[in-house]
Amino acid sequence: MPEGVTKDGKEAKAKAKESPKRRTNLAKIKVELLDGSPMELEADRKIRGHELLSKVCDSLNLVEKDYFGLLYEDRGDPRVWIDLEKRVSKMLKHEPWVVRFAVKFYPPEPTQLQEELTRYQLVLAIRKDLLEGRLPCSTVTHALLASYLLQSELGDYEETENGAGLCKQLKLVPPSSCTPELEEKVVELHKTHRGQTPAEAELNYLENAKKLAMYGVDLHPAKDSENVDITLGVCSSGLLVHREKLRINRFAWPKILKISYKRHNFYVKLRPGEFEQFESTVGFKLANHRAAKKLWKTCVEHHTFFRLMSPEPATRSTLFPRLGSRFHYSGRTHYESRAAPPNRSQPHFARTLSSRRLSSRSADGQ
Q1: Which residue, among 340, 343, 342, 331, has the nearest Cα to 66 in the 3D structure?
Q2: Which positions fall inside the FERM domain (predicted)?
Q3: Three-class SS of residue 317?
Q4: Distances (CA, A) of 291 to 90, 92, 260, 330
Q5: How many beta carbons lie within 10 A of that of residue 137, not counting itself?
Q6: Cα separation, 205 vs 200, whole angstroms
Q7: Which of 36, 55, 161, 314 has a CA positioned 20 to 30 A from the CA of residue 356?
Q8: If you classify domain 110-209 with CATH, what class do you get?
Q9: What is the chain's mean pLDDT, rounded?
């Protein structure tokens, strides 16, 4: 047999074995945005988390990127953050990669956000938190917040407005709270907002939402030392402890000396109080080692973002000892983000709260 025939035969077999997916270095990505619409992307398979987040933010024309992150589902946990320093392919094994764009750090004062577009994304995130039950509030507050959303979406009240239909169509409140009485109250309040621009209505929405007890709190189920079910919440001001939806304790960041985890246990070392002589340590039990580490990482990120002027070097001894984990927060802090205001005029954008205006967006991979 001629030598060339054998060579060609081997090449043909090699091509036949080659998977069609491996012929390209691009991965397909599906992103769920905060208004519920899908975004489709393509990106290099070696892309890291921060590069993918930047790609999504660039597609949305967002420059205040530091408050946002990407969520994915891992081993039954639907709310795991993409690690910005790692390759996305290390976390998401199957294509298309499916992620959700979300607010990671909720600013304690929404007016600190410097662009109207960023505030609008925060409004969408809070609306989502309300609809999914992560942000409990009273019927009165539900009605007030919904009325500001109506003003932002539709402008001034018109006599033809159908409150019942709009509350359901725009998903202004959770279905369980959508009573005729609430819908009537929403319309009454909407009438009082006449003259407010969408940006003003959204700022009023945020000013009321930030007062809610669970605003911006990242929740983690746990058990206390007596094996009673509790919830630990991480937020801009520190660590909150809830039992049966009532806050029973609060550890502010300045009060905390050290936070650590070992196996499924999570520990908080506290400074002595005014009338105390010694430091104290409080322990909690998480479901497993992975849950304890997730809570610890959330604390590292929130403490660094909201309390420090810049991230601490990875090698330095810090408030949060590594205990074998190489993780450290490396993005910009809240201080750094506010110190570098966007160098552009306010961008124009379409508000897509209404489901009748949702449309799929796509962006090409680089």
Answers
A1: 331
A2: 27-310
A3: coil
A4: 19, 19, 13, 22
A5: 22
A6: 9
A7: 55
A8: mainly alpha
A9: 85
Q: How does DSSP classify residue 166? A: H
Name the H helices within the chain.
3-17, 49-60, 88-91, 116-131, 139-154, 163-169, 180-191, 198-209, 289-307, 334-339
Domain 25-103 -> CATH class: alpha beta
* β-pair type (256-262, 265-270): antiparallel
Judged on CB neighbours under 10 Å (0-12, 13-18, 19+), 109 is exposed
How many CB atoms sit inside 10 A of residue 307's CB? 18
CATH class in words for 218-329: mainly beta
Note the pLDDT tens digit of each residue in 332-360.
899 988 888 888 888 888 887 654 443 33
Query: Quick one: tokens of 148?
Result: 């500001």
With a cut of 70, list the residues of the chain below it in pLDDT.
1-23, 160-165, 313-328, 353-366
Q: How far apart are CA 174 and CA 188, in angstroms?
A: 19
- Would you say 168 and 178 are in contact if contact means Cβ atoms under 8 Å apart? yes
pTM, entire model: 0.85
Rounded to whole angstroms, the Cα distance separating 273 from 271 reads: 6
Nearest Cα residue to 70 out of 34, 27, 115: 34
The two domains 25-103 and 110-209 share their CATH topology (first three levels equal): no
